[in-house]
Amino acid sequence: FRCFSEQLVERLNAAPGIAGAALNSAESLRLSRNPRIEIEGAVYPRPNDRPGCTMETVSNDFFAGLGVGLLSGRMLAAADHATAPPVAVVNAVFATRFGAERDVVGRRFRIAGNSEAPSPWITVVGVVPDLGSMKAGEASRGPVIYRPVAQADDRAMTILVRAQGDVARFAATIRREVAALDPELPVAKLQTVQEI
Q1: N or C: which end of the chain has fewer CB within 10 A?
Q2: How many CA atoms lie within 13 A of 163 on its CB side?
Q3: What is the pLDDT of residues 13-38, one digit of tens each?
C-alpha cells in the first residue's frame, strides 16, 4: 500500500494543474490516533499520568504541500526511511508543553504501552506551527506528532492535493492518475477543505 500511495503522490506532483500533493493518515484531516507517550527522563507515577498526543503519519512533502513553514529543526526527509532511526516533527503546542526549559528538537519520546517490549525511542527533529483542527467547533488540536510514512504502518491514508481552478478538472486528474496505477481501484470521497 505504501508503494502505491507514494507512487500516486509522485504522479500527482508531476500532473499539470496540481501545485502539490501529500499523504496524511488522518481521514479527511479529522480522525487521528491518540496514544499516550513517555518523554525521556520524565517520571510517571501512574500510567494515566503519561500525556496523550495526536499522532499522524505524513509524507515528507506534507508541510510543503500545505504551505506550512518550519519553526525550528528540520522537516522530514528521504533519509528518514524504514531502517533509519525513528524521528518525528511536532507542533508548537507539543514543543511548548514538553520542551520545558530547552528546545524540544533532539528530545526523545516513545509510545507508552507494553513495559516488557517497549516501543523504540523517537527523536524530535523539527517543530511546525499549530495547524488547528478540521473538527467542527475545535480551534486547536493540542500536541501533535507527525511521523514519516516510511517509519509507520498506517493502512489508510488521505491524499491531499493543492490545486487552483475548477475542482472538476483536478478531480478528473486525480481519477486518471489513480486509474493509471490501478484501474480497478475506486476513488471515493473527493472533498475540498471547505467541504470538510
Answers
A1: N
A2: 23
A3: 899 888 888 888 865 455 566 889 99
